[in-house]
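Why should sequence recovery work at all? Because a backbone constrains its sequence more than one might expect. Tight turns favour small or flexible residues, buried strands favour hydrophobic ones, and helices have their own preferences. The token representation captures these environments compactly. In the example below, the structure is given first.
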């Protein structure tokens, strides 16, 4: 599923957050969105998801304006995966995934045997075999994030929006989640995720979009877009991008900058 955003503007009162944002995502691509806090990343996601609707511009999924879609139609096309959280009630992992079936039914839809089988299949798909009856609030942050991915897959959408999916996870769980996301993109899912970690984008993303002061600074291949100059600009800090022996790239803070701090 492809996404095209054209000349998007959004303001909170007199404060303009998005200022003429235009870009496109190709079907089956994994695209990382980077930008400093306050640059407009969450607002951009909220406009695409129609959580915010008082924007100017156009947002299209496979050539269809998302504003023209019903809530049910949008749910069939887009799934949103928030940062992992702990709910007040300790739902089972199976129950959390089953919540996705509500998107494909009426308000009073009750999950049936087929829904439950699908939920079990999606938990297995993300490697959580045997987690069906485990409490969602009693498992690790990485496992909760996998449950949220399973819920999105059960929704049946082929376009996934992820808000900092590895936030607050240890390094091992970050790599497990990102490997799973990369695998989904390889299977044809279109994935748009935000991150504060350029190295993650260098490792896993097909493309990177840099958002700065509510505008697109750059879009393209990670190794072409994530330059020392661009990263230093968006984060207001001197950042070096250095080559690795395996041909990849990584980021670091120069020693003299660290000493100054």
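From this structural description, the recovered sequence reads:
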């Amino acid at each position: 599923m492809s996404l095209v955003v054209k000349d998007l503007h959004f303001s909170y009162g007199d404060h303009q957050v998005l200022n003429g944002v235009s870009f496109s995502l190709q079907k089956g691509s994994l695209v990382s969105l980077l930008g400093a806090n306050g640059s407009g990343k969450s607002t951009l996601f909220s406009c695409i998801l129609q959580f915010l609707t008082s924007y100017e511009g156009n947002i299209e999924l496979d050539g269809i304006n998302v504003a023209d879609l019903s809530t049910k139609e949008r749910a069939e096309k887009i799934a949103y995966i928030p940062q992992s959280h702990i709910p007040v009630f300790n739902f089972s992992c199976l129950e959390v995934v089953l919540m996705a079936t509500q998107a494909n039914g009426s308000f009073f839809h009750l999950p049936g045997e087929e829904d439950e089988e699908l939920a079990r299949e999606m938990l297995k798909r993300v490697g959580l075999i045997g987690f069906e009856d485990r409490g969602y609030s009693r498992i690790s942050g990485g496992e909760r994030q996998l449950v949220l991915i399973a819920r999105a897959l059960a929704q049946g959408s082929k376009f996934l929006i992820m808000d900092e999916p590895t936030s607050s996870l240890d390094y091992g769980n970050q790599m497990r989640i990102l490997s799973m996301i990369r695998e989904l993109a390889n299977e044809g899912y279109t994935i748009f995720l935000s991150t504060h970690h350029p190295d993650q984008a260098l490792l896993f993303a097909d493309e990177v979009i840099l958002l700065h002061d509510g505008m697109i600074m750059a879009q393209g291949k990670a190794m072409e877009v994530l330059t020392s100059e661009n990263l230093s600009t968006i984060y207001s800090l001197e950042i070096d991008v250095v080559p690795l022996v395996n041909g990849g790239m990584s980021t670091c803070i120069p020693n003299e900058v660290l000493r100054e701090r």
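A few observations help interpret the result. The mean pLDDT is 90.
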